[in-house]
Amino acid sequence: MISYTDKVIIITGGGSGLGYSAALSIAQLGGKLVLVDMNKKSLEESKKQILEVAPEAEIVLVEANVTSEEDVKNYVQLTMDTFGRIDGFFNNAGIEGKQNLTEEYGSDEFEKVVSVNLNGVFYGMKYVLKVMKQQGHGSIVNTASVGGIRGVGNQSGYAASKHGVVGLTRNSGIEYGQFGVSINAIAPGAIMTPMVEGSLKQMAGDDWESAGKEFVSVNPMKRFGKPEEVGNLVAFLLSDAAKFINATVIPIDGGQSYKY
């Protein structure tokens, strides 16, 4: 049995998608949550929905931009001021960006995607790790992607940033294991979140649902993954049950990344 009683977990991108799903799983297991997102309305909706399922959950909402180092310092400090500890960190906020061939991919767009997906992850790790090292324990899960372990066409910024997350995860896991801190990444494939829906709409416009069916037809499991399936994996990886898993990247994609 996994328990989060008295454990404090920070989740970035907690207003929707994978962040919300992980928050819901952890709240049901007794965890205290600090949900971080740029969208205040989404945060409030997440909290409302979580409390409907786990009415005793303690949830703090923080409106912040992960590309701002100052905002990141602030959400870490707020967590310490409120709870006095950080047991787990789901470093999840990310964007896909526009799709285009590399030669036509906008430089500003590239910098924007890398700023959120890689710099934001780095800032989060930088300030959370200081706390966890001093505590002598903690677990971090970074959101990479199957696009971070193999190529993904027309998404130079996304693929480059997620490869960076993989490298940062492995490197930091090697550094901080000696301090009782485990650091891993998940590599989701086609999970039906607002981001994936947006990606399909970029590719196929109004015919995005048909494109989605064709996309998953090559998956060994012949379907999209569910956000709650990723949330359950994150809840396991951040728990005491997964303490000896470190510096690794775990695909959750129905087997697609191993098919090619």
From TrEMBL:
It holds the Pfam family adh_short_C2. The keyword Ligase does not apply. Keywords: Oxidoreductase. InterPro entries: NAD(P)-bd_dom_sf, SDR_fam. This is NAD(P)-dependent dehydrogenase (Short-subunit alcohol dehydrogenase family). Belongs to the short-chain dehydrogenases/reductases (SDR) family. Signal peptide: none annotated. PANTHER family: DEHYDROGENASES, SHORT CHAIN, ESTRADIOL 17-BETA-DEHYDROGENASE 8-RELATED. It comes from Planomicrobium stackebrandtii.
